[in-house]
């Protein structure tokens, strides 16, 4: 087996590269399943401990802030370290998070664990392991296959999160079987830890991998200015999305319509399924109208649906609009990742993935705390309106700034 994934450069995918991609896909599936139930039971667990939406918002913000800082560190040290080792360290952190989180009930300790741990209250591609996996997937993949590769990666993540959302009903089943409510939640967190351990077993089968070396000492070189512009725009998008991270959307549904945990889990399963099957469509559409156009022209309608949901007169209208939003809102995920990997040099990919992800995490760590406060106001749908309006501003700015910067397959 070769020592690095970077040595595979032929446009025809080798058996070894295909095997490595399958391992990364499988690990993404395990992590997605864990995230799928963790982000739903997290607010329910905190409610059971007696915390209000304001405190839950601050804990969500703490989690996103910690994720951002750790992702930034990973992106800049990755060129000097074995990527496989970094993936194993991330899986170990996931295991530790699941083991430690349910053993504390004081708000300060919970916030600290959320800060250093891996439970992410958002969906999508935020997380400490994501930039490393992105860099490994991009190495050796032909330009014409890159977007499809990331679309499959995102599809697996979305489907696994959908399945995990169904598993969020398990605490209710355990309670009906006679298990205490807090104990039922703790069992789920221990299951999250087990998924981290299984991910580590998959990562161990990967070859040692380093980013391609170059003479410049800085992680970013010729693409620095463009990456910083993308990071600024992505941070606006993430700040907007932070008002409606899935944990807080669950709070909104609990408070606005008195939705049960089991029903919320079922609904988020279907939203994740809708998002998942939009991802291959995104790759197909990008091949015809371009990556930037796909990102923008699918994102704006999804934001409009979210704004309308805030004014829904009943639960069924709200769920229908949110389902339509989910069918479009994630189509920018594989296209955004593919675009970043395409417009920078191979040696800059890990740093570029980190630098574009970290401002997103930092920006999204601010808005959940604000959203928690807004959820206590008379118009409880205000976070949804703010998300939709700010995302539309982002989409227009992205189109105006980068419509002429084409990836290799569009040149």
CATH superfamily: MFS general substrate transporter like domains
CATH fold naming = Growth Hormone, Chain: A
- Secondary structure category: mainly alpha
Gyration radius, in Å: 20 Å
Query: Whole-Å distance between the termini?
Result: 35 Å
Total discrete domains: 1
User: Percent range for helical residues?
Assistant: over 70%
CATH class: Mainly Alpha
Element layout with pairings:
Layout: H1 15-48, H2 53-77, H3 83-100, H4 107-116, H5 130-138, H6 143-167, H7 170-176, H8 181-203, H9 224-242, H10 246-257, H11 261-289, H12 291-310, H13 315-329, H14 332-343, H15 349-374, H16 382-402
Helix pairs in contact: 1-6, 1-8, 1-10, 1-11, 2-4, 2-15, 3-8, 5-15, 6-11, 6-14, 7-8, 9-15, 9-16, 11-12, 11-13, 11-14, 12-13, 12-14, 12-16
3D structure, described in words:
By secondary structure, this protein is an all-alpha fold. Helices cover 74% and strands 0% of the residues. It is built from 16 helices and no strands. The chain has helices spanning 15-48, 53-77, 83-100, 107-116, 130-138, 143-167, 170-176, 181-203, 224-242, 246-257, 261-289, 291-310, 315-329, 332-343, 349-374, 382-402. The chain starts with 14 loop residues before the first helix and ends in a 9-residue tail after the last helix. Residues 1-11 and 213-217 have low confidence and may be disordered.
